[in-house]
């Protein structure tokens, strides 16, 4: 049960860290509507990527935005693989 709680906390921390990083890189992202971004938009983006959904109204328009999203997706995949491996021991 501890591994589940640790994994949950890890995901929450990743979402917050990546939301701050996406906010820092806000010039590298665009949205379909030409509205201003708020921090909650970046939390939504980080949450959809971390959950594996990957669908948001914000999308990267530069190399740095794309690489940041790829890194978050790879971290999410590796966490799931590690968790599944741990539960099967």
3D architecture notes:
The protein is mainly α and about 90 residues long. The chain has one domain (about 1-85): Orthogonal Bundle (Helix Hairpins). Helix content is about 65%, strand content about 5%. It has 3 helices and 2 strands. The chain has a two-stranded antiparallel sheet. Helix 1 (about 1-25) packs across helix 2 (about 40-50) and helix 1 packs antiparallel against helix 3 (about 65-85). It starts with a helix and ends with a helix. The model has no long low-confidence stretch (mean pLDDT about 85).
- Overall structural class, as computed from helix and strand content, comes to mainly alpha
The poorly predicted ranges are none
Count helical runs: 3
Q: Label the CATH architecture.
A: Orthogonal Bundle
* Share in helix: 55-70%
Which percent band covers the strand fraction? Answer: 5-15%
Could you say how many structural domains there are in total? 1
CATH topology: Helix Hairpins
**Mind telling me the CATH class?**
Mainly Alpha
The description of the largest β-sheet is:
2 strands, antiparallel
Which series of helices and strands comes N to C? HEHEH
Whole-number average pLDDT? 83
Outline:
By secondary structure, the protein is mostly helical.
Q: Could you give the topology of this structure?
A:
Blueprint: H1 2-24, E1 29-31, H2 39-50, E2 58-60, H3 63-87
Antiparallel strand pairs: 1-2
Helix pairs in contact: 1-2, 1-3
């Amino acid at each position: 049960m501890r591994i589940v709680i640790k994994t949950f906390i890890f995901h929450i921390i990743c979402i917050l860290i990546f939301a701050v990083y996406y906010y820092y890189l806000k010039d590298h992202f665009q949205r379909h509507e030409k509205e201003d971004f708020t921090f909650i938009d970046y939390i939504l983006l980080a949450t959809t990527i971390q959950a594996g959904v990957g669908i948001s109204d914000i999308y990267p328009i530069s190399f740095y935005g794309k690489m940041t999203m790829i890194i978050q997706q790879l971290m999410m995949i590796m966490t799931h693989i590690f968790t599944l491996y741990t539960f099967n021991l």
